[in-house]
Queue: 2 jobs
Job 1
Amino acid sequence: MTFNNVSMTYPRLTPLMAPWVTSLISQQELLDQAFQQYGSPLNIHHTPAFADNYQSYVAVLQHHELRHQIFFARKANKCKAFVKEAQRIGCGIDTASYRELQQCLDLSFEVDQLVLTAAIKSEKVVRLAVSHQILIVVDNLDECILVNRIAQELRMSARVGVRVSGFHSGGQQLYSRFGFSLDQAMELIIHQIGPDRMFEALRFTGFHFHLNGYSWQERGTALIEVIQCIDALRERDIMTEFIDVGGGFLVNYLAYKEEWHTFIETLQCAVRGQHVPITFLNTGLGFEMIHGQLHGHLQTYPYYNELPREQFLEAMLSYQNSQGEAVASLLRTRDIALRLEPGRSLVDQAGTTLAKVAFRKHDSQNNLLIGLEMNRTQMTSSSADFLIDPLLISSTVDTRSSEPTVGFLVGAYCLEQDILLKRAVVLPRIPAIGDIVCFPNTAGYMMHFFESEAHLFDLATNLVLIHSEDTQVPLQLIEDM
Ligand SMILES: *Cc1c(COP(=O)(O)O)cnc(C)c1O
């Protein structure tokens, strides 16, 4: 196919590129050295992006004159570099396991900059949290019993936040497996927590929720429902310090709206059989044909969206109750602190994954397959596909063979499903062995959330890019430690 054919047939999804990634991938020698030393793939991180994202949230919260605290949800990326950067800039950490919490304590984090939200809380992690007086977000009565018992054993009290769910939106109740219903939470806080009660060692401090999905309206509604509970508690002289709204702040990955819409339309056509497949074996990523009709919806992250990060927060704070009062002013007049736990959005544009090309071949359907030295678990989230175009970096560009081409990137696990991107990717030419494929913006979940050591492959090395203000000083890559 000619270039025009390829690019017209296969929709592009041009990524937003951070300038640091653009300059990194022009440093062929630095990259070659890093691959030689650490193997493929490489995860490369850049902490100033984290600090910028943090500041963008702080600016909105300050503008609304809200008391606030931001906790980085570590589960989005395991690197210590971000924890250290958080500590340096005054950002807290949301921890979800013993090791996540212990590492933060080892780095001498201030205890009121930490929160434990783990979905399953072992006795060991509860003991660690209570003994250091770390706020624990409780999810159910069995956890309250456990935390209370350990606090009594340690002759201490335990500060707890109460996780709630089951909010109402669009005439429906939002399902969650997490948390107490608001009614259960009120019963717990009013009748079961505190001196001379069942949970006498617990101290109620605030409410917590973390909603699935990416609706600022649902978060606005949830805040309003929680504020009503806080008002009812205040009438009983029970004070609430904060509401923690969890994470889920959107990230925008893509440069162009039109490309996103064209992609979705083309995918639908392909699934209907009216266009050549643009995904591996014509997988629908959520769309499917049933009795000749197209059903379903795209089951991926909304990679293109127009209210990312601080704009999402701004929208949530402007959400109004039925009297026309905005969430921001409801919080401010009651002096309730707002807490956020962003994960993905704090590491937006703060990491990239690079892998070496190992082989090229054609499969029995004449698809070009490009084998990369990495496996699917090293770039996977819960989304059905990672919908952005990778970049090809070649050391030796032979312009004569520079014919745009389309193919699938495949990985090292001996599974038919070890396809790195389900979408067919357009590359400027057939890659050479040893070329590098760069996946931009992978720090949030893509690198670490599902990585495994099957086949005894080593986990990818995590490197941190260091550059000084002085442009004469060369870029440096150091191990994350
Ligand atoms: C996953 C999670 C977060 C972070 O969510 P993001 O979508 O990465 O912002 C925050 N809080 C809790 C309790 C979580 O489970």
Job 2
Amino acid sequence: MTNCSQQSWQGYSQRKGDSGMNERIRELLRQIPPMDTLLSEPWVSKYEKDLGRSTVKAVFTDIIGEIRKSALDGNESAADRRTIALEALKRLESYNAPSLKRVVNATGVVIHTNLGRSCLSDAALRSVIECAKNYSNLEYNIASGDRGHRNDHVEWLLCQATGADAALVVNNNAAAVILCLAALASGKESIVSRGELVEIGGSFRIPDIMAASGTRLVEAGTTNRTYVSDYEKAVGAETALILKVHPSNFRIVGFQAEPSRDELACLAREKGLVFLEDLGSGFLLDPVSFGLKGETSVRECLLSGVDVVTFSGDKMLGGPQAGIIAGRSQLVERLRKHPLMRALRPDKMTLAALEATLRQVLAGEIGEIPTLSMISTPPEVLLSKAKGLAKRLRKSFPEYAFTVVPVEDAVGGGSLPEIPLHGYAVSISHPRFSSGWIQKKLRETSSPIIATSREKAVLLHARTIRNTDVEKIEQALYKIISGTEDLPDASS
Ligand SMILES: *Cc1c(COP(=O)(O)O)cnc(C)c1O
């Protein structure tokens, strides 16, 4: 970095020639203190200790380079020791703070992909710590004293929870779909309905995933109506697979038709094709028991004749990030042996968390799995939670107004966008500060609080607020109030 910026600066001055350089610019550049002077600032040693001397030096070098460039471009920016030191301090402080950290999810969206999807259960965490801190039998068969397989720790549990003959875990659901297509249809054709050629978000686009897996996409039907006869017409000598995709956060309503799973399974069997379904969320329990009508459990899909299903570990399962593949053992065996499997295999911490979560699912301990418990919390419980929070905040912060209001929460993770979950939120407003300003200040604290807003108020949705978050919310509000000297007006 250092050499680069110096070279370009020297090149510039040589090109222009000394006479071409304005005296004012020279004066500005002369102001820049030498590196040794900058590094001798008393506060610098702390950052040298935390980040290393070369990092600190690189930060100063960057800043000096920027000032030089700006001066040569004709800007009169300050280049004194104090200005440089303040800028360096700001940058070093931000590098020194942890980047990935806890936040308070006050959005009411339970499976919030940007906020890390599912929170793990205590049992899952205990298992992660135990297996990550120590050695484990990850790939060791204790009975025989020989090599074992990492997948063995969860396969039986997944088969119990889904009714599948065999199951396999990979890094995430995108990896699961890629592995299935690569192992079962690469170099061949795969048929997808035009109504399911979707983009899920986070750059998961069905046509691109298929191309990356080496299978040729053959489209069937139309965007809104696809019949089993459309799939039948698309079958040719090169067809290997029928792919059904959960449209996630996208719905076709009105003049719409799609064949049932049973019909597609029948066609696949008749033509000797693999029937693969990307379920996305993957319900292990009955979706209707969560008030989520219109979804199908993994078990039901397999019973309808789908050969292999894939779904995420951190959506409706409530576990760690993982891709789960469940289905016929003959096909799962082909996936296991595929060279990509080695690149997509899950980490031991994932497997530890997944195993513990699956055990809780089997035991019906819904209340222990945060995602499932948040989705199934009844409105009256959320109302009293919101009331309790509002009462506590009212006592500590009389200058703000706190009221409890009904809100629509969401499952998230691409599940059922049209079915809102009825919830409650604490609405925060202030006579002078705008909701946008309060929202920003809540985000800027050391435990950032991510809230929504409606009209002039900030909303803290009770559903996704953890018990230990309440303290964080109080601390954040205290911090906003104690920083009153730079508070702008509501209009700003
Ligand atoms: C979420 C989702 C994916 C991606 O799953 P990841 O676990 O994030 O890789 C793929 N397909 C569908 C239908 C989804 O809903």
